[in-house]
């Protein structure tokens, strides 16, 4: 191709050799520590430590009068023939005081978990003696969405949670709600009870099940795999944490902090 032709057809393709950044990261595919199973012992140790921490926290909060704590989980059968189930079990003083499960329709697991969290929070904040709330969940992304009333899938649940918390926080000072992450592999106490409660119920989809924005987006993305030459990959979940309420802010009630933790607390 002559220089005049190159000039007339210049663009991203022709400039790729000069404008595309070179990879500077060094990858170590044969590193000894990257062998499958090499860190299994560390993982098991971490899970045991997490179990001890959760047991200690449960024993501590069960002694506090006015503290309500709940395990929330969902059931989302992989067969595609059943609707998702959201379950919540509320405790206080070591005694179960309320439980509920809801048929949520053809939605994603985070959508159903958000419903379960909403159910637990709304019930706990409606109790006159409630001063502190702990939510044990295995989906911190749904916990973060629960206190974010902006536009997203399941926004109605988030708005209900924020309204309930706003009313509850104005009752008196010193109240707090804490979200605690429970690794699903632990099958731990409160959270596993909610898991079993959710999986007991099976409801078929029916002709017109409820849907969510995320479930429709996922269905549209999955449908692309049927097209020749198309592939679909899922983005891994990112665990986020730490929220705080700001009395000076005129914007959203809650603001995202910079620290990444396996849980977060809101307090007045």
Describe the structure.
The longest helix is centred in the first third of the chain and has 22 residues, at 40-61. The strands form two sheets. The protein has a six-stranded mixed sheet with strand order 3-2-1-4-5-8. The chain has a two-stranded antiparallel sheet with strand order 6-7. It has 268 residues and is an alpha/beta fold. Strand 6 (243-245) and strand 7 form a beta hairpin. Residues 232-261 have low confidence and may be disordered. It has a single domain, classed as Ribonuclease H-like superfamily/Ribonuclease H (Nucleotidyltransferase, domain 5), CATH 3.30.420. Helix 4 crosses helix 5 (140-146) and helix 4 (109-125) packs parallel to helix 6 (155-169). The chain has helices at residues 3-8, 12-19, 40-61, 109-125, 140-146, 155-169, 189-199, 213-223, and strands at residues 67-75, 84-92, 95-105, 132-137, 176-181, 243-245, 254-256, 263-267. This is RNase H type-1 domain-containing protein.
Lateral strand order in the biggest sheet: 3-2-1-4-5-8
Considering DSSP H and I runs of 4 or more, what fraction of the residues is helical?
A: 25-40%
CATH architecture: 2-Layer Sandwich
CATH class designation: Alpha Beta
The helix/strand class is alpha/beta
Low-confidence parts, pLDDT < 50 over ≥5 residues?
A: 232-261
* Tally of separate helices: 8
Largest sheet, strands/sense/barrel: 6 strands, mixed
Overall tally of domains? 1
Gap between N and C termini: 70 Å
- Element order: H for helix, E for strand: HHHEEEHEHHEHHEEE
Backbone shape: globular
> What does the average pLDDT come to?
79
CATH superfamily: Ribonuclease H-like superfamily/Ribonuclease H
Count the beta strands. 8
């Amino acid at each position: 191709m002559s220089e005049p032709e190159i000039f007339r057809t210049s663009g991203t393709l022709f400039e790729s050799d000069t404008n595309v950044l070179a990879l500077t990261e060094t990858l170590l595919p044969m590193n000894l520590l990257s062998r499958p199973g090499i860190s299994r012992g560390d993982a098991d140790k971490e899970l045991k430590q997490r179990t001890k921490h959760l047991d200690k926290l449960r024993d501590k909060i069960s002694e506090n009068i006015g503290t309500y704590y709940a395990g929330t989980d969902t059931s989302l059968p992989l067969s595609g023939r059943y609707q998702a189930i959201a379950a919540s079990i509320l405790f206080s003083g070591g005694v179960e005081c309320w439980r509920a499960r809801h048929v949520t329709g053809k939605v994603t697991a985070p959508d159903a978990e958000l419903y379960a969290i909403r159910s637990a929070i709304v019930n706990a904040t409606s109790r006159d003696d409630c001063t502190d709330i702990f939510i044990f969940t295995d989906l911190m992304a749904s916990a973060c969405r629960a206190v974010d009333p902006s536009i997203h899938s399941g926004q109605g649940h988030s708005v209900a949670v924020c309204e309930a918390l706003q009313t509850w926080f104005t009752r008196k000072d010193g109240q707090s709600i804490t979200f605690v992450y429970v690794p699903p592999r632990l099958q731990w106490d409160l959270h596993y009870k909610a898991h079993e409660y959710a999986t007991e119920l099976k409801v078929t989809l029916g002709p017109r099940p409820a849907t969510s924005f995320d479930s429709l987006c996922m269905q549209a993305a999955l449908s692309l795999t049927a097209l020749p030459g198309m592939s679909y990959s899922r983005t891994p979940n990112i665990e986020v944490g730490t929220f705080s309420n700001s009395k000076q802010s005129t914007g959203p009630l809650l603001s995202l902090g910079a620290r990444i933790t396996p849980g977060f607390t809101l307090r007045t």
